[in-house]
Structure to design on (371 residues):
């Protein structure tokens, strides 16, 4: 983990190489969304702040895939600085960051276990999760990018989705029970004790990470469009048009292969990549082309230190839960807001604002903490 300072007075240069503020804003939107939906106050939450129980799509289901998509985009932009040339130094840097993200995810799981009195119960420790999936998708996408051109990367993504489609359709991939192909394979690879303990199907399992990897590679390919030398309006239209095509294809295919976040179904990958691309194009138009930036500063704050703020929120949530103060805070909010759904949402917003208070000084001083 390292902190760097950037020049807040620097202004973007004109042309295709100019940094797009919309990238930071979209990344911040996704991280803020992840923090918001992960920290409900009570057991009751609005449907929009809950994941689909099985098939379906809610706004809550969009935040993690949007993050993987924008991570793919920024991976392209980052590696383009090295002209995608393989070197031991670059490969080590990729591997180090990927492993660090995975280890931080495991550390958070261990801290939660330790605070519950199970510090040495490594045999029951979950090895999957949001951060391990981010680390795997980042590392594999980056290493592939050092070997293959964007056109080939697109074919790799298509191949992964095609293979996963065959497996899901032919091997009981939509069964909402322990007989699901993903559950069976994950148990065989990692063992049931190291998977998600609240349902028979791990929402960040190893097998469904194949589809999530393809998802990240799709974002990487959109990064190539962002970096293209064509005028920004033309790039913006291309991103929106391709995104619309992906989303439309996913929705059409969902008639026989439903959208499902828990198994990261191929249709889920297509639809969420498409929607993410359309959102990115919209933000590019509003922020970078029309210059309407004031409203976006809150999300830009989260976008310059996304993983650090996400990790901070997870540590804070664990600490609050272990200290026993959460019920008191929620009771206080409930006394002011009688509606339990609104009170739960108010707690989520309060938690997000606390995280924003940590993000603000880093944003003002342009301190970037890299994981």
């Amino acid at each position: 983990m390292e902190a760097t300072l950037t020049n807040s007075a620097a202004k973007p240069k004109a042309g295709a190489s100019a940094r797009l503020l919309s990238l930071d804003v979209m990344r911040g939107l996704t991280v803020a969304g992840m923090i918001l939906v992960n920290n409900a106050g009570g057991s009751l939450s609005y449907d929009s702040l809950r994941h689909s129980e099985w098939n379906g799509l809610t706004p809550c289901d969009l935040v993690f895939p949007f993050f993987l998509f924008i991570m793919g985009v920024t991976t392209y932009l980052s590696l383009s600085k090295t002209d995608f040339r393989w070197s031991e130094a670059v490969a080590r840097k990729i591997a180090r960051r990927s492993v660090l993200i995975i280890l931080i995810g495991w550390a958070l799981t261990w801290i939660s276990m330790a605070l519950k009195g199970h510090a040495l119960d490594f045999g029951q420790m979950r090895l999957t999760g949001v951060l391990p999936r981010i680390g795997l998708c980042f590392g594999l996408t980056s290493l592939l990018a050092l070997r293959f051109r964007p056109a080939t990367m697109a074919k790799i993504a298509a191949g992964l989705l095609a293979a996963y489609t065959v497996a899901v359709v032919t091997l009981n991939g939509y069964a909402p029970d322990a007989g699901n192909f993903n559950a069976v394979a994950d148990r065989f690879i990692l063992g049931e004790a190291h998977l998600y303990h609240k349902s028979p199907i791990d929402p960040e399992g190893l097998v469904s990470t194949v589809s999530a990897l393809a998802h990240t590679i799709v974002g990487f390919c959109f990064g190539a469009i962002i970096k293209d030398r064509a005028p920004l309006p033309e790039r913006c239209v291309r991103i929106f048009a391709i995104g619309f095509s992906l989303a439309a294809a996913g929705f059409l295919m969902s008639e026989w292969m439903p959208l499902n976040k828990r198994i990261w179904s191929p249709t889920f990958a297509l639809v969420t990549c498409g929607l993410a691309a359309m959102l990115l194009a919209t933000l590019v138009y509003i922020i970078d082309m029309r210059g309407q930036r004031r409203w976006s500063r809150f999300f830009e704050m989260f976008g310059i230190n996304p993983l650090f703020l996400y990790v901070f929120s997870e540590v804070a949530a664990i600490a609050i839960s272990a200290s026993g103060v959460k019920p008191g805070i929620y009771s206080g909010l409930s006394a002011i807001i009688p509606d339990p759904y609104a009170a739960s949402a108010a707690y989520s917003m309060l938690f997000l604002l606390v995280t924003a208070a940590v993000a603000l000084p880093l944003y003002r001083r342009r301190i970037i903490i890299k994981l």
About this structure: The first strand starts at residue 2 and ends at 5. The CA atoms of residues 175 and 239 lie 35 Å apart. The chain is about 65% helix and 0% strand. Confidence is low (pLDDT under 50) at residues 7-16.
